[in-house]
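Margin note from the TA: students keep mixing up input and output lines. Inputs are the sequences; the output is the structure of the whole complex. Example:
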Amino acid sequence: MSEKIKVLYIDDETDNLTGFKASFRTEYRVLVAENTIQATELLEKNADIRVVFCDQRMPGKTGAAFFEEIKTRFPLPVRILITGYADIEAVIAAINKGNIFRYIRKPWIEADIFSAIEEGNKFYLASSMLQVKNQELEEAYSELDKFAYSVSHDLRGPLTGILGAIDIAREMSDLKEIRELMVLMEKSVFKLDDYISSMHDYYSSRRGELKIADVDFNVLADELKDIYRIYTTTNKITFTIRVNQLESFRSDELVIKMILNNLITNAIKYQKKNFHDKSIDLDMSVRNGIAAIRIADTGIGIPENHFKEIFNLFSRATSHRSGSGIGLYNVKGALLKLGGNIDVSSVLDEGTVFTLTIPSK
Amino acid sequence: MNLSFIIVENVELDRYIAKKLIRNLAGGARVEIFGSARAALDHITAVSRNTPEPAIILLDLMMPKMSGGDFINQFEALPETIRSRYRIAIVTSSMNKAETQRLSKRDRVLTAIEKPLTHEKFAAFLAQIDGGFTGS
């Protein structure tokens, strides 16, 4: 076992405390308190206490009353009352109110305490796990809320635009005018398509397991050149890729491709209009077990106050271009999965540089 | 009545549709177009005192940075002399009906039209405001 279970014992008789400590200190990490004030302080300082034993009969406050008091403030530690026969009514009341997990009869024997700690620990782990799951659920729900917004904004928005365009096209007879409308409709369709592929990336990268294999960045570079040749030539963008891979590298190639595709698509999408020297520069090198990737563009840039939030879900730094606000969120999530990192630096109206590091697995 | 429209919409296609429908159904109306709520609000604040005729603002809700809701909030803070020259018609594809409903009840907001904006819907809207809005 990696770490001892932390246990707190409260009793006004110091002899009992000493005896308890002597009996269980080898198996558990034992903390003791002579009164409930000391006990509260210890609970505050030790958030990892898993089981609390408390004597029922103490001057000032009974064990049952103390447990009732700490129940909401320190909900996780499992509460066990130690008491004699005379207090059986108090014990029953405390159990029924849910204030204690179980009780141990006084004078206790070691076997009872051991079993109480082991059982209490199981209960502690189960409820901690439940708490973690609850938190995950809450996060999932808040993501779902954002998704609902995004469905009406990013899916329904372009669709209603296209429907409206069809409606006005019915009244049009001028071919030139109709063509003009088609260009705008096409943009909306591209936006929808863009959104759907990033949603796909999002869900597959969240659920999927990593498939680790050798990654050859030279092969990857050739593929990327092929994929983006048409886009870059029609948009008059100089796309250069340099690779310097001196050793083998292991990672999930599909995930790396998804990351690069997102960054390259952004670099193409956010170029300055009417700028003559458009370029995208991709540099990939592998050294000492780390792949360092740098992608620089001559685009519109990102305002500095947006650097942090661009990786958030549905965040958009610009209102002028089509974008779903999911791409960079996916990139960040994928890099976390690979154990990598991403940094951004940018100058408005000059360009953006993304720097990535990915460790070999 | 001499109508005047201000389109506040971040999506190019939707701006085009609104402009076209105004041309088709409200012939001689003046149209001003803004791609963001901020730009529209700045314009209104700057020129409003000299605007000869009252204008109807066709307001999209889901816009980045400053939403249609934010626009309405800031519009309400403007002086009465400016506000009285405008009426707002919300045009949205939002599926958050409750929010749209709430916003459509705000001061100076005439109605909420669900996208897609079509000849039929826009004609019905024009019939609804016909003679009913002359500024105040």
